[in-house]
Design goal:
Blueprint: E1 7-8, E2 20-21, H1 23-35, E3 40-42, H2 47-55, E4 64-69, E5 72-82, H3 87-106, E6 112-121
Parallel strand pairs: 5-6
Antiparallel strand pairs: 1-2, 3-5, 4-5
Helix pairs in contact: 1-3
Length: 143
């Protein structure tokens, strides 16, 4: 969110003062929420976030982006899914969980959650090769 540094909570019940939440916190909550869904893998939004993720600096909200426009508050989520999952079902689950979690944790209503599925992750394959003796003549062969 380029224009607003913090999201002011208007319906706060605090009598002691105002409450503001940084957009990065909202993105992090969305990222953690998505990360807890089986079969879903967040991917970074851009190259700099990708490098930060590799360095461990910004991994939590790497695949999420909060935008405020004429539609209201919109979150864009970039994901890869495990091969074999139902894309519409998982995308709907992502949308529902992000909206519920952000409402519960912050009281912020998200108007849209846009899910971008950028790829599929293939099933893991197993290898019969002994990692302790990779040049063995019997690697991968049945005796």
């Amino acid at each position: 969110m380029a224009d607003t540094k913090y999201l002011e909570l208007k319906d706060s019940s605090s009598k002691s003062g105002g409450i503001a939440i940084a957009p990065d916190v909202v993105e992090s909550i969305a990222g953690i929420t998505v990360d807890q869904i089986d079969g879903v893998h967040l991917i970074s939004n851009n190259i700099s976030k990708g490098f930060n993720t590799i360095l461990g600096l910004d991994a939590v909200g790497a695949g999420t982006k909060l935008i405020e426009d004429e539609r209201g508050l919109v979150i864009r989520v970039n994901v890869m899914l495990d091969f074999g999952v139902s894309v519409p079902q998982v995308a709907t689950k992502i949308q529902d969980r992000i909206q519920q979690q952000l409402l519960f944790m912050t009281g912020i209503v998200i108007d849209e959650v846009n899910v971008v599925v950028s790829g599929m992750v293939p099933d893991k394959t197993t290898s019969d090769i002994d990692p302790n003796d990779i040049f063995s003549e019997n690697n991968g062969d049945q005796k």
